[in-house]
Amino acid sequence: GSAGLRGGEGEPVRDSTGYLLFQGGQAVRPGTYTAYYGVVDRSDNQVYSFKEKVEVPDFRGDRFRLSGITLASRLERVEGVAPNYTTPFILGNLRVLPRPDDAFRNGEDFAFYYQIYGPVTDPIDGRPDLDLEYQFFAARDTGPGGLVFSPLGKPIRLTRQRNQVQGYTFPIRDWQRGTYRLRVQVTDNVGEQRSTEEVSFRVL
Fold first, then answer.
1. Could you write out the DSSP letters of every residue in 70-98?
2. pLDDT tens digits along 64-98
3. Which residue from 68, 58, 59 is spatially nearest to 199, judged by alpha carbons?
4. How far apart are CA 9 and CA 187, in angstroms?
5. pTM for this structure?
């Protein structure tokens, strides 16, 4: 099938580097897919296309786990939005503008977004009780097996979080040029279980 791309409600949406952003979606079963994209430049009628493999994980069942971590160029909390995915770039109570790449510069805001699946909910209010830990690592040199990462600073800890849609942002200041890694660890306090995901990024 095909899905139209939407550029936001009202004016076109641009990220921090000026790229125009569009969002499209379609309900599919878990599995591996090839997505084809086409763009027509109306000024000269040129057609541009590309394709990519898309892995759709199976989140059915009650297993506690995290989605992949999405690096964002902008992350904003929104209020009064219905918790669905029909409005472009609105995920839960967050407006998430994804980054076109994994590169950040000093002075930019580092932002990321992820979802939490399968936590046990509190029997009283029906919501989860989650502790979050964000630990950064810096690549210190190239070892025999590739980059070797060591912890960078102390972990950021957030306790008693109740939302399954999570995002975090902070400014990058005086980071050395190099490759870094973020580890996200979420503890389900009600179900007494833990899940971890990682993502790498660069500072230019």
1. EEEEEEEE-SS--SSS-STTEETTEEEEE
2. 999 999 999 989 888 766 555 567 888 878 889 99
3. 68
4. 36
5. 0.86
